[in-house]
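Thread: quick sanity check before group meeting

JM: Hey all, I'm pulling together slides for Thursday and realized we never actually wrote out the predicted structure for the chain we discussed last week. Dropping the sequence here so it's in one place. If anyone has concerns about the input, flag it before I start.
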Amino acid sequence: MTMAGNLRKVTGLGRGGGLRRVARLSRRLPRVDLSHHSRSPLGSSVVNCVTYQGGVRASRGGDLVDTVERVRKNGHGFVWLGLHEPTNDEFAGIAELFELHPLAVEDAVEAHQRPKVERYGETLFAVFKTVCYVEHEELTATSEVVNTGEIMVFVGRDFVITVRHGRHGSLGPLREELESDTAQLAKGPSAVLHAIADHVVDDYLNVIDSVQADIDQVETDVFAANGARTDPGRIYQLKRELLELKRAVVPLGRPLLDLADRPTRVVDPEIQAYFRDVSDHLLRATEQLAAFDELLNSILQAHLAQVTVAQNEDMRKITAWAAVIAVPTMVCGMYGMNFDHMPELHWRFGYPMVIGVIGVACSVLYRGFRRNGWL
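JM (edit): ok, ran it. Output follows.
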């Protein structure tokens, strides 16, 4: 029986006998180090499982049940379990062990959630949208600019569970950075929650800076000499990608303010001040996105105005040439009626005179239109 199957039998796992009964059951199985996903019986979704005591990473391994029992028996420290796109079967045992709410578990497995922070008893459930900038040589009407993913975080008094969805947003570098700051990590699971929120918001700002470079390039092309020939699809594509970015950034504002202002058992009071700083950074990102949206609207309107002006210039040229061509058309049409009694038909200088009149009339019209800027 795998560890996942074993954990699915867990019921009523508190700090008392329920956890000890599961611990005795798990000892019948071979010990497996959960700190490496390739050796995890819970499947490849488990990225890492580490215990921290006083902000320091514990060296001992062991299975998940023993690790949780040891932390709860000591009364201090916490477990950080990281997963990547787990299935329902892989997450079921973990959900029972940590008494996670079914609605939060469903959101964590299915993903595609709106950024939010919810409280289920003594457990905090947070959803963050991760973003990354997609590099491209040249922006086109079909270029992907922003790629999104999700990080779900379960925070309890003695555990942190991170569930990541998407190809980017790895928390490995963040874990290493946190482990180098033992004083911050010693403040408990809420320090991890803050670090993740700060990491996600910093990525927002980095992506926004990269998107600004694309907007600047489009703006330069629109106001160039041949700006009317700029593909408007590039502008619409940027607006679509900007909308995707706004869906990740804007809804996170209220949850961060709640974490900063509303006291919560699992959030250390000292950490709340750090959430205010993250909220300020998010506000900056939100304001930049609003400015980008207005700027793109202005660029699009300017491009449409340039197209209208170019069309008007083309129509003036066409009208001017039509007026010039109308002179020989009218004269030749009149002399092509083949009447017998037209006085100029039998005149020796009739043909040169008509050609001369046509040439002079066309020259006068051409110079007049050229002087007025129509040609």
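AS: nice. The CA atoms of residues 30 and 130 lie 37 Å apart. The two ends are 86 Å apart (CA to CA).
JM: adding both to the slides.
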